Amino acid sequence: MMKVSITANTFELTDGDLKQMSQLGVDCIDFGNGASFPGVKEEGYPDLDELLKQKRRIRSWGMDINRVTLPDITDSFMQGEPGSEQQVENSVNAIKVFGEAGIKIVRQRFAGDVIHGLTTTYQAVQRGGAISRGESLGFTKVKPETPTLGEAQLWRDKFREVYKRTVPVAEDYGVKIAMHPSDTPNHDTPFGGLGLHRIIDEFPNKNVGYIYCVGTRAEEGGSSLVLDEINHYGRKGRLFLIHFRNVRGSLPTAGGFEEALLDDGDMNMFKIILELRKVGYDGCLNPDHVPLMEGDNPDMNKNWANSNIGWSYSSIGFAYSIGYIKALLAALVEFER
Fold first, then answer.
1. Is the separation of the CB atoms in 104 and 174 below 8 Å?
2. Cβ-contact 7, 288 below 8 angstroms
3. Less crowded by CB within 10 Å, the N or C end of the chain?
4. CATH code for 3-335?
5. Is 106 helix (H, G, I), strand (E, B) or coil?
6. pTM above 0.85?
């Protein structure tokens, strides 16, 4: 049965945070910031004892840790700077720690996986004044140069170098490495549609797959693309986590998009759940990038202006999304009878 997870971008969750999550019926927590784990700043990778303490604390509230994030692979490594190889070693050690802690899904972030400046970000105002992230191709009059084919291939070489080191270790420790698609999914981004698929072409190991972001992929091609990709990757058993969010518009159809509440975008989210069920997906649905609602204290990130990317105490938008997903899952059970 599918479950509900919530992204937390800090390791320091209060009892109030965990109490609210438990009351809302959250099943799992996804930790989205690899630098937030104790030990990363000091040693380069998480401290196992502190991680286990936090896991026991989360379990005491009836939840568990679902997905975590490895230390970042930064520009220095992607550009081949001397000494940057330690970043890969840190990721290898982090996978070992997470594996020993019984955490089965990790994400590796790569600098340069998004091409910035090709769209103009703006504040989208939706029903009742809810605020969300909008991006437009048309409002961008001066666009930056995009990578050449050769530059893109060099970037891909560095990506493969990391996966060649980390994938065997992940397999040994029973850990799945999940990649998130490029957000924003402009043409020729490393993990747009073609680049995303190339990951499992290059690394056919069953421990390699995706954090499949429904909203990001809809930004590239709408609901038909999302349904096709869920069917394709799901049949291969490569969907490890679903970022479950809705959008209005897409880059090819509208020249832009706006993030939306789950019931207020272009996609029928129940159809998305039906497609996931059809391919046997039984992991977590994570409502990320939730529009800002009155009274929210949002977790913001400058890379996604006007987008509420993770849990914060008394988050009204996340509470709404959690309830909506749980209702869809309840409806799915009755639908299948």
1. yes
2. yes
3. C
4. 3.20.20.150
5. strand
6. yes
